[in-house]
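Good day; I would like, with your permission, to put a structural problem before you. A protein sequence and the structure tokens that stand for its backbone fold form the material at issue. Thank you for your consideration; the sequence and its tokens are set out here:
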Amino acid sequence: MFLRKVNISLLLALFLFTPLIHAQSDKLIYDEITNNRQGEYYHIPVGLCEDYPEETTTMEIIKGDFEFLKKHGVKLLRISFGWDAIEAEEGKYDWLFWDDYVKMAVDDYGITLVPYICYIPQWISKNPQDTLFFWNYPPKDLKPWSDFIKTLVTRYKDRIRTWEIWNEPDIWIYWQGTRDEFAEFMKVGSEAVKEADPTAKVVFPGIAYDPEFVKSLFKDYNLGSNFDIVNMHNYYETWHRHPIEEITTYINEVRDVVWRYGKNQPLWMAEVGYSTFRKGARVSDSYSAYFEYEHTPEYQAVHLFKTLVLAASTENIEAVAWYEVKDLPPHEGVIGDNDNNRYLGVAYPDHKPKPAARALQFFNELFSQKYKSIDDMLWVNKAVGSDVQTHAFQNEDGSIIVAAWIQTILPGKQMEDKSGMVKDNRKENVSVRIPVQTGSKATLYNELGDAKDFSSSLKKTDDGIELKDISLEGGKIAVIKIE
């Protein structure tokens, strides 16, 4: 969500550190994330995002990131290649940092990199006088843009197989040109990727929030044929007032646009997050907290698990990347929201994990098989006017996963208290019937994977099973697996 640059001064340390071993191409997951799901069951890889500012990145930080991913079982990482840093002077490319970074990520750690290409160098910007935002204006000439992309893709095509062109173009902070200029910019960029590597997949830039932007580029400029994947971002309840439960509508709206005006491309949500910043009730210009637990490290973990369950329930997403690995240190500059941008990590700046890191790891463990949504099969017994959300999945081995919670944000239903410190005393008991024959062992988990036996609440019915008396509390989540 903010501008980062690359630290070229790390080249010697990186070169000395990186062992010369063969690329672990057999461990990469591009095939899984670049195709629409085939068959009844599917699996959504969930990864992380990270950027590397030239002013503050160190060898210790980079190695810490990779070790953090390894420890938490994360195989997917979205990064950015900054044209402004790599070609700070016209015609002079500096690859020394990235050569070793890419080799280390892929060869040593088996990480699937899904980069986006961004940031116009000052020497080619249409507004070089804007010393803060020269990078988000169109280039004066598109040939250097094309040349850079072809050089970049050619250099790393043995290790990187997807290329996202730009980032969040539907908001001014990432694009200060016209729609016409952006359409031509995208067309030239996508053609350059394909010229350099015809097998590569080109990713439409992750929109911040507006499906109509994708519709315009596909319908009015016929760009649907230039892209193989469409990315979208989401920060509901941080930079957007909508409840996280509305993420399913957002995903389905983008799917509808791509189906109607594109070529039914796979969808990613390769930037989604929730900050642990708040000052009183204030979170951002768009969102204020209501309950006391919102935007705490503990609730970030709950929100993350809800988000992933909701995204999976749509059956319309092929990859998710949570933003981001770690919070920012106080001295690191940002562009945009100076508060929330610093507190989006699943770890603190020193890589000490927040609860969200464990929640991400547990989700990947629990949803390690292929699965399918069975929401349309559920019968949920709950009170009239209940605010309970329930989603269920069946794994290929026949086991069932049920996730349930009381929705936190309820537009129009909350009181006038604006302190942000309202105690959430809501409690509900629900029962869920599923017309599927399965085993008799049930385990109840929270978002961190803490478990207790729940088999006594599992009852056989004539046509399947019933989970009775699932106790829910505001601000928490119940996850049940039936073996």
Remarks:
- The chain has eleven helices and 20 strands.
- The longest helix spans residues 179-196.
- The longest strand covers residues 465-473.
- Confidence is low (pLDDT under 50) at residues 2-22.
